[in-house]
Design goal:
The complex is a heterodimer of chains A (85) and B (231). With 85 residues, chain A is mainly alpha-helical. Chain A is built from five helices and no strands. By secondary structure, chain B is an all-alpha fold. Chain B has three domains: 96 residues, Rna Polymerase Sigma Factor, Chain: A; 79 residues, Arc Repressor Mutant, subunit A, CATH 1.10.10.10; 30 residues, no CATH class. Chain B has twelve helices and no strands. In chain B, helix 3 crosses helix 4. The model of chain B has no long low-confidence stretch (mean pLDDT 84). Classes of the chains: A mainly alpha (85), B mainly alpha (231). Chains A and B meet through helix 1, helix 2, helix 4 and helix 5 of A and helix 2, helix 3, helix 7 and helix 10 of B.
Chain lengths: 85, 231
């Protein structure tokens, strides 16, 4: 008999589910619970959307000034150092 | 510089090894190409550990200086990105430990039981139209910076840098299990935080429905009848 999963099982396996990992059996059991549970459906859907939004907005760009200061410092180091160990 | 420009990610990691070879053979401009390829990742990693841009900048510079001076010690057993990320994490951690306001987060707290998320309204369908990409980026960055450091590291490496769980665990120096546990908590925290800005305001009907789900339909029906009698 198939194991019935509850909301806590969905939460514990959330990463695995949204990453598309895990056995077919586990995924089917999770899907069965999600189909009947509005709360878990929202949590799964909004977690997927969270990850998509984070990638879409492309956070923490290197500011141009920061990049310029990095190259200035490295130029100094590269011209001083004769060898790399 | 131009001669070292290589097409991006032809075979992941292969171009890095070619450039490392050039640098070790004495071609210093090849190191600049390595920096261009990885400055963004190193910056994000140092922000992940330190949580603020000023410290991250210094740690990023120190990372590349150290990587250049110790390039001969790169053994090619792991990918160059993993090796470099490891240096960046160590540099940032050293800086963090020297900071007076740093409070270390006990690992056992990270392993505490998961609590059910409490913001469970569905979200607006088009957050970028509501906020605009710049504003949404500002919200996302602020919420990631608010995460406890051990969760922030896991989240940035896995969900922004898109490293595999194994690579991220190796770079941080923890087990894959620990990485996955931190990542799940981080994802739930970011989701919960974004929900505050992105979830739809509940209608009265939905609020009653959710109350009913929470306390049981029969109790809710009795409650509503009681309210009606009072009115």
């Amino acid at each position: 008999m198939k194991k019935t999963l509850d909301c806590k099982d969905v939460l514990e396996n959330l990463s695995c589910y949204v990453d598309g990992d895990g056995s077919t059996e586990l995924r089917e059991a999770l899907e069965e619970h999600i189909a009947h549970c509005r709360r878990c459906r929202v949590i799964v859907d909004t977690t997927k959307r969270t990850l998509k939004i984070v990638l879409d907005v492309d956070p923490f760009e290197v500011p141009l000034a920061v990049s310029a200061r990095l190259y200035t410092r490295l130029q100094g180091v590269l011209s001083e150092d004769r060898t790399v160990s | 510089m131009q001669k070292n420009e290589l097409p991006n990610q032809r075979v992941p990691g292969e171009d890095d090894l070619i450039l490392v070879g050039h640098v070790l053979a004495g071609d210093r401009t090849a190191f600049e190409s390595l920096v261009r390829r990885h400055e963004r990742r190193v910056y994000r990693v140092t922000i992940a550990v330190l949580g603020n841009a000023e410290d991250a900048e210094e740690a990023m510079q120190d990372t590349f200086v150290k990587a250049y001076r110790h390039l001969g010690q790169f053994r090619r057993e792991s990918k160059f990105t993993t090796w470099l990320t490891r240096i960046a994490i160590n540099e940032a951690i050293q800086k963090r430990q020297g900071r007076r306001d740093f409070i270390s987060l006990d690992e056992s707290r990270g392993a505490s039981e998961l609590s059910m998320p409490w913001r469970t309204e569905s979200w607006r369908s088009d957050p970028e139209k509501v906020y605009g990409k710049q504003e949404l980026r500002r919200i996302v960055e602020a919420e990631i910076q608010r995460l406890p450091p051990i969760y922030r590291e896991a989240f940035v490496l896995r969900d922004i840098e898109e490293m595999t769980a194994e690579e991220a665990a190796e770079a941080i120096g923890i087990t894959v299990e620990a990485l996955k546990s931190r990542l799940l908590r981080a994802r739930l925290m970011v989701r919960e935080a974004l929900a505050a800005s992105l979830q739809e305001p509940p209608t009265l009907g939905k609020r009653i429905l959710h109350t009913a789900e929470g306390i049981g339909i029969s109790v809710a029906v009795r409650l509503m009848r009681a309210v009606r009698r009072e009115v």
